[in-house]
Amino acid sequence: MKKLLLVLSVLMLLWGCTGTKPAEPVEEETVDLSSLTIVTPKGAPVLAFYNQIENENYTRVTADAIAALWTGDQSPDVMVIDLTSGIKAIKDGAAYKLGAIITFGNFYLASTGNDENDTMDSDDKIVLFGNENMLPSRIWHYLYGTDYDASLLYESDAQQAAAALASGKYSDGTEVDYVFLAQPALFAAMKKNENAKLYKDIQEEYKNKSGLDMIQAAVFINDRVNEATGNAFLTELENAVKAAIENPELVAEGLSVYTDEEATAQYGFNPNVVVNVFKQKNALGNNAMGLGFKKAIDIKSDIDAFLAIFNIEETSEEIYFK
């Protein structure tokens, strides 16, 4: 017993001489996301950022305005745009990496009620939104080829296309038969036109032809954003999206910052319709908004397969945010 006490005394003496202390728990560094600048197009991507509406660093623009934001001092830390446009921007030199996919199909083709035979023919007037190089046009031509090209009319964004479905007329007054549109703009437009009806679920059409799920809006992160901050942002976004799918009332509450006409101008849709759209399912059994979250690097093979349909070469792992 005396020997044991002697050994313990020596050990205590040595510890005191060296000044060594037991390791203390290291606190994880808190990442501040409040200064990140975020830009999304108006329309469905806004739903993923329902909890950011009052964030002064979050801006919503028309889809065709994003092309000018990829370079320069004003380029945001985080930008959302359709996958193909973002991949092209990176290939052209934009200093961004692909972080996540947040919408997986909210495209539909609706009839205005003007087509007498209720069958889409090559001479029927068909409205798409965006321009010839954006995703709606690319999807359209993958599914239907060039047979309808002489009849295609382009509106600048989903809000303008929704007006065409509601009125049955293109912006120049031309009567139209079908409108290619995204939710939730589709839902609101159909409420304004009692003759309008759903003609095709584009997600179903696409999967029947390709065997793949649709991939639409993608999140791109500026190279200036460090790994810890970028990953913290993606985790927060994933949690927000999952919460929204489980409880659409959270989205309605977040978007209630703006109301009436101001809300439509801010979001590109009437937020009052969002909860109703979330409760609906598309032909594949997913929420009609197509809202979801997948980190891009985790579905690289799916992304490459999707891009191959548009003759875009396989992506390099270097363009992914990890």
What characteristics describe this protein?
six-stranded mixed beta sheet; 322 residues; 11 strands; 11 helices; five-stranded mixed beta sheet; alpha/beta; single chain; 17% strand; disordered N terminus
Can you walk through the features of this model?
The structure is a single chain. With 322 residues, the chain is an alpha/beta fold. Helix content is 35%, strand content 17%. Strands 2-1-3-10-4-11 form a six-stranded mixed beta sheet. The chain has a five-stranded mixed beta sheet with strand order 7-6-8-5-9. The radius of gyration is 25 Å and the shape is globular. 39% of the residues are buried. Residues 1-28 have low confidence and may be disordered.
Q: Summed up, what is this model?
A:
It contains 11 helices and 11 strands. It has helices spanning 2-18, 83-91, 135-144, 158-167, 185-192, 202-210, 227-246, 249-255, 260-267, 274-279, 300-309; strands at residues 38-41, 58-61, 78-82, 96-103, 107-111, 126-129, 152-155, 178-182, 197-201, 217-222, 291-295.
